[in-house]
């Protein structure tokens, strides 16, 4: 029998960027735990295909997380059609790798919009109802790179470092209204986003060597951490980032 502290049955959860990869695995985990899950992305057909493969009550909500008007309409529509949100996972994100001297202005803005502004926009709209109702859980998907950086990834790390601080700020603002905000920080996880790195044998071997667990992460590795953070067991945990990285952020 599962412990009641970890019971999230019947909660309504929106996971942004859940058409594939980490978001889809987290959505599956929430659905398996008994949540009503709302998948989000920019392509409605891709979302319907993803939803068809998940157990339980799974809905979709198509909107671009970088566009304020589209976010506000998307959250309002979701709450009207599905019900008030109990859980939000700000997962949508992207990665661009290039040396800073070669990094284009447009890429910088696109990265910031997708990885950081999105969490502000979606978080703010979801928190309007959560703070009014006096409860809610928000988890921002940060990164190992919220803490450390390597050459060629400074703009991405800057967005994820800022997302960590936004997580603490959201906790400060919304914690008094019963809304708990934390971060989940994946290490190197095999997804479409990291495919070029996985296919680079030298880099891939470096990841395995540098990770105490001795392997790349799988999307399913992140589910337990998320379920903890959105469950009553974490009701007094706020503004923290839980790193799920096989130990990589702890070693030199
Ligand atoms: P993927 O590229 O596999 O998936 C990204 C998801 O985000 C897709 O579902 C995509 O949906 C969605 N998305 C992208 N832009 C938007 C947008 N503007 N509006 C709505 N949805 C959008 O990435 P991962 O699963 O690997 O990464 C997920 C998160 O985890 C990201 O925030 C990433 O930074 C973070 N992370 C990943 C790590 C890894 O090793 N993979 C490590 C640390 C953190 P669609 O294209 O259908 O719109």
TrEMBL record:
This is Gluconate 5-dehydrogenase. It comes from Streptomyces asoensis. PANTHER family: 5-KETO-D-GLUCONATE 5-REDUCTASE (PTHR43669), OXIDOREDUCTASE (PTHR43669:SF14). Pfam families: adh_short_C2. Keywords: Oxidoreductase. Belongs to the short-chain dehydrogenases/reductases (SDR) family. Coiled coil: none annotated.
């Amino acid at each position: 029998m599962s412990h009641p502290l970890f019971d999230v049955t019947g909660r309504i959860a929106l996971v942004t960027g859940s058409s594939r990869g980490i978001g889809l695995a987290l959505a599956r985990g929430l659905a398996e735990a008994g949540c009503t899950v709302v998948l989000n992305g920019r392509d409605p057909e891709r979302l319907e295909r993803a939803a068809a493969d998940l157990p339980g009550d799974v809905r979709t909500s198509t909107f671009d997380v970088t566009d304020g008007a589209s976010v506000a309409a998307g959250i309002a529509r979701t709450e009207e059609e599905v019900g008030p949100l109990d859980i939000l996972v700000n997962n949508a994100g992207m990665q661009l790798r290039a040396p800073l001297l070669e990094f284009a202005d447009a890429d910088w803005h696109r990265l910031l919009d997708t990885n950081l502004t999105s969490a502000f926009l979606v978080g703010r709209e979801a928190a309007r109802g959560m703070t009014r109702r006096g409860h809610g859980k928000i988890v921002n998907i940060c990164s190992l790179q919220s803490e450390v950086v390597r050459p060629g990834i400074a703009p991405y790390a800057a967005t994820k470092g800022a997302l960590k601080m936004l997580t603490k700020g959201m906790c400060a603002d919304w914690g008094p209204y019963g809304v708990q905000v934390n971060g989940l920080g994946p290490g190197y996880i095999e997804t479409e986003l990291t495919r070029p790195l996985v296919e680079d044998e030298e880099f891939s071997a470096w990841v395995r060597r540098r990770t105490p667990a001795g392997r790349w992460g799988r999307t399913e590795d992140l589910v337990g951490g998320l379920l903890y953070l959105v469950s009553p067991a974490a009701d007094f945990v706020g503004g923290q980032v839980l790193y799920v990285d096989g130990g990589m952020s702890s070693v030199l």
